[in-house]
Structure formats: C-alpha cells, structure tokens
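Bug #77: duplicate submission created two jobs. Keeping one. Sequence:
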Amino acid sequence: MLIVVVILVLFILSLFLLLRSRAENKQVAREREKYGIPEGRITYADLNKPAKPLFSANLGLVGKPDYIVERNGKYIPVEVKSGKARSPYRNHILQLATYCLLMEEIYNQTVPFGVLTYSDGQQFKIPFGIELREEITKTLKEMRMQLASKSVLRNHNIPARYKFCSLRKFCNQRIA
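Kept job's structure:
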C-alpha cells in the first residue's frame, strides 16, 4: 500500500512540474514575441523582475540590460524601449554598446551585436563593430572627463528632455 501511495505522489508531482514548465514556456514565448527577443536561451532578464547588475571593475562600468540571450555560444544583449522609433536613437545605441563592452569583459568573448526593440514593434539589430566600439570608448572617456571637472554644461536645448531629466533639481542651467 505504501508503494502505491509513493507512486501516486510521484505521478502527481511529475504532472505538476510538467504543467508548470509548459506555463513558463508559454510565458517566455509571449515575452519573446512582445519584446522581440531573439531565439536562444535567455540567461538574464531584468525587465519583469530586478536582476543583479553586470559589473566590471576593469572598465569602471555597471549596467543592467533588459535581457541577455545565449545563441550558438554567443551572448546578445537586448534592450527594450518604451517609445517608438523609425530608426534607433543614438543614445540607445550607445547604451547597448556599453552592455556589449560589459558582456565581453564578463564572458571573455566578443559580442557580435545587440538588439534594440521599441514599443511599436520596431526592432534593430545593432552590430558591435570597430566603429561603434571606438565611439563608445571615446564617449565614456568624455563622460569621465566631464564628471571629473568642476562644471558640466548642459548638452542640449530641448525643454521636454530637460523637463524629465533626473538631475533637473540640481541643474543651474534651467531651460524649462
């Protein structure tokens, strides 16, 4: 009788795990479709639940891409943006490039490209080549020089951008 109970419990547990696995697979499929996540194994997700930041002391960088997908032994960052875009915004490309640098340091391998996906369904595959690598390296250097200086000047005249700036309350160059 004990053996029958044990077999029944194992059967019920197996059925529960199978149903839970199917539900998780459906959830992943919905997320892939909604956010334009490329095929491959999702190894990191920060969009729906907080994940541990990626950190490189060597580069002096910390970041949290929305997803990291492993495909054919390569890691691909995916960044989901809430706005719409006909073409990717430069600041979004540089953010993605920063994640590529971080991931190369952490995984000790080249990152071939990253993916930007916007709320209107537009998706952009951004190659992480020599030009983008040089641009992000130059931009990071400029940012560090600005941070080390006593005075940082606003780099735009866009009132809407200023209105939503997280540093607005500290700014002495008000435009809105």
